[in-house]
Structure formats: C-alpha cells, structure tokens
Amino acid sequence: xxxxxxxxxxxxxxxxxxxxxxxxxxxxxxxxxxxxxxxxxxxxxxxxxxxxxxxxxxxxxxxxxxxxxxxxxxxxxxxxxxxxxxxxxxxxxxxxxxxxx
Length: 101
Known about the structure:
By secondary structure, the chain is an alpha+beta fold. The chain folds into two domains: 28-59, no CATH class; 60-101. Helix content is 49%, strand content 13%. It has helices spanning 11-15, 44-55, 63-75, 82-100; strands at residues 29-35, 38-43. It has a two-stranded antiparallel sheet with strand order 1-2. The longest helix has 19 residues, at 82-100. The two termini are 35 Å apart.
C-alpha cells in the first residue's frame, strides 16, 4: 500500500473548472446558476451531495499521525490488529444485511 496524498481537495477546489479543459456532465439537470453569462447545471445527485456535505461536518485531519503511520509502514514497524479489522468487517457486513432485510 502506498500513501502519497496527504490532503483532500476542498469543496471549492473540486468544483472549480480546470483551465482549458472541457466539462462533461452526466444525469438530468435540475438546477442552473448564471455566472458571467454562462450557466451551470447540477444533477440531482450533485444537489444531494451538497446537502450531505452541509449536514455532516468535516472530520479533523491529523497530518502528524498520517506521517507517523507512513514512516511505520515504510520501516516495517506497522502492526495490523487482525482481530479488530475482522470485528469491524463483520459488523459492517451485519449492518448491510440488516438494511437489505
């Protein structure tokens, strides 16, 4: 496993158009917003994502902890607790099965 990116782009960075590139849209357009004579159309999924992002606050990011884990992996010192991973995997599977039932 290789960890190379330590920061996620902010919402503003993800929604900014790239320079010189074409923008491709999928899904049915439900909203439009004029900006300097241009219009932007957002799909229903985009609108729902915006609602979810405001509903759930961003978690804090500990760059020092990520750096320490990266060093431990590189040095071979990182130990995986297989029991904890298995317990969480089983809990996740049980939750998914419960939703479908």
